[in-house]
Amino acid sequence: MQPLLIHEVAARDGLQNERAVLTVAQKAELLGLLAAARPASLEVTSFVRADAVPQLADADELCAAIRAAPWRRGLPLVGLVMNPKGYERFRGAGLDALTAVVGANEAFSRANSGMDVARAVAINRELCAAARADGVPVRMYLSMAFGSPREETPAAAVLGLVETFAAAGADLVLLADTVGVGRPEQTRALVAAALKILPAERLGLHMHDTYGRALENCAAGAELGLRHFDASAGGTGGCPFAPGAAGNLATGALLAWAQERGLAGAMDAAALDRAAQYLAGALGRPLALGPARTAAKS
Questions:
Q1: Where are the domains of the chain?
Q2: Across 110-149, where does the E strand assignment appear?
Q3: Contact at 8 Å (CB) between 231 and 249?
Q4: Mean pLDDT across the stretch 152-161?
Q5: 4, 111, 221, 256: which has the fewest C-beta neighbours closer than 10 Å?
């Protein structure tokens, strides 16, 4: 069976909601340690307003600092973009692939991007077109695809967005459980429906672990043939525009699950643990490694 393709998000999604703000040097070291674990791809930063996400205000400086890093050879580096201005910064940063985001319900879309869903879709279709013209792969995230504790996201709305961005040429569409409310049976149903629109190689999952179901949800997706999954070293993460969102699925937990089933590919668990240990020290708090390991201590 094809191994999981784990997209490591600790350096971007993992840091954006932390109180501690890492320096450029710390982020560059973290990225090198994460690269040593050999993920399929590595999310570096986001190109958004500094006042919106101050933890990532140094995106341009960080990308310049790692431009000649030897560890980046052959490893796709990814940056998040929300609008055309961010795309111009991304193009100057020397990264390899683009993360774009559309909220699947109105409340989150307005909080996250300042736009209603219709406007966010229009902007992101423009981003897809620009990226395709430039030969840049696009990872399109559908946030709040599984709803929130206060508001359901209709499956029909999510599937409509899958169709929209399949047609727009997104290389990969990821269903994102932004606040971790998804359940395995819901994941199976939504993934099965999405697979009628896109093949498994163009679909993925981005699951948060608020209620401890992220790994079960990814397992449900894997059973249906998905191989693209996001995870964050140490289980770091959260969303500043989604109160109550806990961290992402810990990469160590996902990797341990994959190893038990022969789906881990070339990923290096020991290197991943070293990255999580470093991040715990930089943040000054314990982080999760995985079900078979103790927590990384600060």
A1: 5-283
A2: 138-143
A3: yes
A4: 95
A5: 111
In this prediction, what percent of the chain has a pLDDT beyond 90? 82
Rounded Cα distance, 201 and 188, in Å:
16
Contact 17, 248 (CB under 8 A): no
The whole-number pLDDT of residue 196 equals: 98
> Does residue 63 have an active-site annotation?
no
Q: Which residues pair with 233 in a beta bridge?
A: none
If DSSP codes are grouped into helix, strand and coil, which group holds residue 30?
helix
Q: What Å distances lie between residue 161 and 29, 39, 53, 56, 145, CA to CA?
A: 37, 28, 26, 28, 10
Nearest partner of 63 among 49, 51, 80, judged by Cα: 80
Global pTM reads 0.94
- Residue count of the chain: 298
Kindly report the CATH number that applies to the domain delimited by 5-283: 3.20.20.70
Longest CA–CA span in the chain (Å) reads 47
Give residue 1's pLDDT: 80
C-alpha to C-alpha distance for 254 and 289, rounded to whole angstroms: 10
Which tokens in the block code for residue 221?
């997706």
Whole-number Å distance between alpha carbons of 253 and 201? 22
Contact predicate 98/138, CB 8 Å: yes
Q: How confident is the model at residue 242 (pLDDT cuts 50, 70, 90)?
A: low
Distance CA 8, CA 159 (A): 25
